[in-house]
Design a protein that fits this description.
Elements: H1 12-63, E1 70-71, E2 82-83, H2 84-88, H3 95-100, H4 114-117, E3 147-148, E4 194-196, E5 216-218, H5 232-239, E6 246-248, E7 264-265, E8 278-280, E9 296-298, E10 308-313, E11 318-322, H6 327-334
Parallel strand pairs: 3-7, 5-8
Antiparallel strand pairs: 1-2, 4-10, 5-6, 8-9, 10-11
Length: 347
């Protein structure tokens, strides 16, 4: 007769140990997978900015200047504040979108511009940001890449304070209102001057109490002209308050609209600063002068990438700037002719 041997089965303890080992291996593997995915998203985000950089230089080759940070007609009741990207559409191979806009009308209030304004443009969206591609309330297209106004608060070249008195400080960055900068005017060098930064997209329905970084504070009450921010003391007094006068969950919306938080930011604070972002004045397109000249901002660069943000330099290359960058270096990178010397190793 043949010997029939019955194989030894797993005991319950051995099975549990095997399951535990598999669980540990999966736990060790998941962060590596997530890290690899984020690395891929970071590469895509950097490539988006490189495309924008190429478009900026195509524009400069055609016109001899970079596009303005925003174009404002200063016509009472229809400011027509068109942002940088509205001028850059042909260089991004988006002439059909440009042709769908009526640039004689307001970009955000006139129904004629609703359809083109609702277009979301894939190279404007960072894949690391889970925010919406369109704003649910008004369907405007979102984006992650605002233009840099510099390291100071004003946006306009003739800013005034709440009393209407002139402010001596002017924007010192590549993009501001109604100014088109020649390449030769970038005295600090194109490779040392930030053109476009990175920001996050607001998620609808999340207010100040739930996430104060999901939008930005307005220094007024959304119906009157809020006081402008003319100094760091103004920022602290007007913006760092328990109950801000206004909070807009519109960060990154209206890529074609030239306003702080929407398509403009500055380097007054370091990347991903944990304090609230803020905009002074209320420069919507239905307002009139001197409301436009009170426009100011303290809006930091932000991203969903661990440890820092991407920045497109004016020569077209993209760098990753750490959150720990020194504030003087970060501000120096924002100025176009400040005379600072910045080495690539300092950020």
């Amino acid at each position: 007769m043949r010997d029939i041997r019955i194989g030894r089965a797993f005991t319950l303890i051995e099975l549990l140990v095997a399951i535990a080992i598999i669980g540990v291996l999966i736990a060790l593997l998941l962060p590596a997978v997530q890290s690899a995915r984020e690395a891929g998203r970071r590469v895509q985000c950097s490539n988006n900015l490189k495309q924008i950089g190429l478009a900026l230089h195509h524009y400069a080759s055609a016109h001899g200047v970079f596009p303005p940070g925003r174009v404002n007609s200063h016509v009472a009741g229809r400011g027509n504040t068109w942002g940088t990207y509205s001028q850059l559409l042909p260089q991004l191979d988006l002439s059909p979108v440009a042709n769908a806009f009526n640039f004689d009308l307001a970009p955000d209030l006139d129904p004629a511009n609703t359809t083109a304004g609702a277009v979301f443009i894939a190279p404007f969206l960072c894949p690391s940001d889970p925010g919406p591609a369109r704003r649910a309330q008004d369907h405007y297209g979102m984006h992650n890449y605002p233009a840099c106004v510099g390291g100071l608060h004003p946006v306009t070249q003739a800013p005034v304070d709440a009393s209407g008195a002139a402010i001596a400080v002017r924007p010192d960055g590549l993009f501001s209102e109604n100014v088109a900068v020649r390449l030769a005017a970038v005295g600090d060098g194109l490779s040392n001057t930030v053109a476009i930064g990175e920001s996050i997209r607001s998620v609808p329905g999340i207010g100040f109490a739930a996430d104060r970084l999901n939008g930005f504070v307005i220094t007024g009450d959304n119906k009157t002209i809020g006081p402008p921010i003319t100094s760091d003391a103004d920022y602290a007094a007007l913006c760092l308050v328990a109950s801000p006068p206004g909070f807009q969950v519109t960060r990154g919306s209206k890529w074609h609209y030239g306003a702080p938080g929407h398509s403009l930011y500055n380097h007054r604070r370091r990347p991903n600063d944990d304090r609230v972002d803020c905009r002074g004045g209320l420069p919507h397109s239905d307002k009139s002068d001197p409301a436009w000249h009170q426009l100011s901002l303290d809006v930091a660069a932000r991203s969903r990438h661990p440890g820092g943000v991407h920045a497109l330099l004016a020569d077209g290359h993209v760098g990753f700037v750490k959150d720990s960058v020194s504030l003087p270096v970060w501000r120096a990178l924002a100025s176009l002719a400040g005379g600072e010397v910045v080495s690539s190793g300092s950020y």
